[in-house]
Amino acid sequence: MHPALLVQDLRVSLRGRALIDGVSFAIDPGQRLALLGASGSGKSLTAAALLGQLPAAMSASGRLQINGVDVPLSNRRRRRAGITAIHQDPMSALNPLVRLGRQLEIPLRHAGHSASIARQQALELLASVGIEEAERTMESFSGELSGGQLQRVCIALALACRSAVLVADEPTTALDMVSQAKVLKALSLYSESTPSESAHSESGQSASAGAMLFITHDLAVAAAFCHQALVLGSGRIVEEGSMQSLVEGPKHQYTKQLVEAAHVGTDSLRSEATS
Ligand SMILES: Nc1ncnc2c1ncn2[C@@H]1O[C@H](COP(=O)(O)OP(=O)(O)OP(=O)(O)O)[C@@H](O)[C@H]1O
Question: Where is the ABC transporter domain (predicted)?
Answer without folding.
Answer: 5-259
